[in-house]
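Structure tokens please, single chain.
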Amino acid sequence: MRTRRRKMKITDIEAIVVKQPDIKMIGDGSQDTVVIKVHTDEGITGIGEVDSSPYVVKAIIETPPSHMVCIGLKDAVIGEDPFDVEKIWNKMYRLSYYYGRRSAAIHAMSGIDIAIWDIIGKVLNKPIYKLIGGSYRDKITAYCSLLMPETEDEVKKIVNTYMPMGFQGIKFGWGSLGKDRYKDISLVKTARNELGDKPYLMIDMGMVWKDAKSAIQMCNRFSEYGVYWVEEPFTPDNKDAYKRLSQSVDMRIAAGEELGTIYEFKEFIEECGIDIVQPDLSRCGGITIAKKVLDLANYKSLPVIPHAFKTGILMSASLQLIANMPYAPFLEYCSQETVLSKNLIKNHFTIDSGGYVHMPEGPGLGIEIDEDVLEKYSVRI
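Here you go.
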């Protein structure tokens, strides 16, 4: 007779703010992060990460109760069995309703959700992708993701530094983009000329375009240089502009990293006509919601390429989802040279000679935090 599993309990949640010594006002989310540790009464700890405002996330998790739908996430989760992961997600959503529902509260929930899935995988000695439907692949093509520099010479240097590592494409985003349209065109042209014809080239506009007409003109110019997709041309609230742009150009339009909950993704997919869906697992609601987004996108025959511009924790979470995708074009590989992006976990993911990153095979996320790095760059509050 099979022995019934004893109910495990979550006993504590840590929200650890981690940052490099100097934060530059650039579009680089790998300069800081929030590491989530979910502890249990069986001594198993799950790891997660949040891409948001670190201090806001920490406050949302640790804030004491105010009333029945205004409770900090730690108090909402302590005492729960991590195997009740859907129940816990809905409980967090319900008890944070007064201040939550979207944005930073969903970001904080995402990190906790990832950590809970990590616990489940560790208990069962299985990677997370084996618990959410199984794996279609054991490796994935990676593209290099970096900020757009200021000059054409810097673009050339980046291409010639990173592409020989095996990447099959490169995405330039944020940085100098959006300040001058002619400069943007020149930078994109330089990138294509340096890459040659075959490698993929993607451009992330970082929400700087304001109107559909200008965006249409720029996409048409970018198409001359074989840009595979344009990412986040507008803020997510500018749905009409997304719809007009998507209907007016042949180029793929990608978006989704700013969205949270299945409700926002459903609205965006149905109303905006985007071609590529980009949930960020540390912001969308975690693995629980990312799986639902994947199902929704599959129903609409839309590819999902998770946004991941943080550390190896988020990269591993993204790989868990990618392994479970029927169709998975790419992994976003954050190549920013920050102390956290490559050093927060031990044995950071590498690119093989064919341009692939291999799926983690260990239990849960299949990674180990470098506790010395975590301690060195943690902020005591």
